[in-house]
Write a structure and sequence with these properties.
Layout: H1 3-13, E1 41-42, E2 45-46, E3 55-56, H2 58-66, E4 79-86, H3 93-103, E5 108-111, H4 113-118, H5 120-128, E6 132-135, H6 148-166, E7 172-173, E8 179-180, H7 182-190, E9 194-195, H8 212-222, E10 227-232, H9 236-251, E11 255-257
Parallel strand pairs: 4-5, 4-10, 4-11, 5-6, 7-9
Antiparallel strand pairs: 1-8, 2-3
């Protein structure tokens, strides 16, 4: 079914929705088949050093709540949720897995289709050692810029390949580049996914960004109860500092939890 046919189908099924989006002419790349609002938004949060839940965009927070999205966990106690984005393998994931195994910490790895195709043994190890593996799409597109059919293909292609490779399933999605819209949240929610953003992050997607001490201190300065921490596994400093970060957080009374504990 092409986009035009799909649009007719969706509009027929959602006649009760009186709030259809209007696509602005100057943004033709956002023309899609869904009737839900598709204004592209980027996940934004304002970190603080008071160890409090950070300020986030109100519209984004409301949309996440509506579709069971996640950017923090239980804030009633010193709970932390550690996540890694795996766009490509840079030689550090084995060390990260070793550290997590030795520390008995379970995390969530968000992988792309290319990552799975190139590193099936690492992905199988993630599953075997009790970690959650989440969906970061097959080709890492900005989801608000693709059609409903393409969005579903991006997610299902990876999910199907992952299940075939590991026997496990995917339930969590991290939108590429943190870009989303009402439409993408709605569609992915209907596909059975919870969108996972973050409340602690840093500029660590470059392999050489920061030193181990700098990256560890940046994370610790931004910690708060219920923090969902985003780290990039391509960064050597992250791999080197992970063990000490875990130990120092535990020394301060924090507990590492899995995303499955978030209601």
């Amino acid at each position: 079914m092409d986009d035009k046919e799909n649009k007719k189908t969706v509009e027929k099924d959602t006649n009760q929705d009186k709030h259809q989006s209007t696509v602005k002419p100057q943004k033709p790349k956002e023309v899609v088949s869904s009737t839900y609002a598709n204004e592209k938004m980027g996940w934004y949060y304002k970190p603080n050093k008071e160890h409090q839940l950070p300020e986030v965009n109100n519209r984004g927070k409301e949309s996440l709540a509506k579709y069971r999205g996640i950017y923090h966990g239980d804030i009633s106690g010193k709970n932390l949720y550690l996540t890694f984005d795996e766009g490509y393998e840079n030689g550090y994931t084995s060390k990260i897995l070793d550290t997590l195994r030795d520390a008995n910490v379970k995390v969530t790895f968000f992988i792309t289709g290319d990552y799975l195709r190139r590193n099936p043994e690492l992905v199988k190890r993630m599953v075997r050692e009790g970690h959650i593996v989440g969906n970061h799409t097959d080709n890492h597109p900005s989801l608000p810029t693709v059609s409903d059919a393409t969005l579903q293909k991006e997610i299902n292609s990876l999910s199907d390949a992952f299940t075939k490779e590991t026997g496990a399933t995917m339930q969590y999605l991290r939108p590429p580049m943190g870009e989303y819209s009402e439409r993408t949240l709605k569609l992915t929610y209907e596909m059975g996914y919870r969108n996972v953003f973050w409340s602690v992050a840093m500029v660590d997607w470059r392999p050489d960004a920061g030193t181990p001490e700098q990256n560890k201190n940046t994370v610790k300065e931004r910690l708060h109860n219920g923090a969902v921490i985003l780290l990039h596994a391509v960064n050597k400093a992250n791999a080197d500092m992970l063990g000490s970060l875990i130990q120092e957080c535990r020394d301060e009374g924090y507990r590492f939890c899995g995303l499955e504990e978030i209601q």
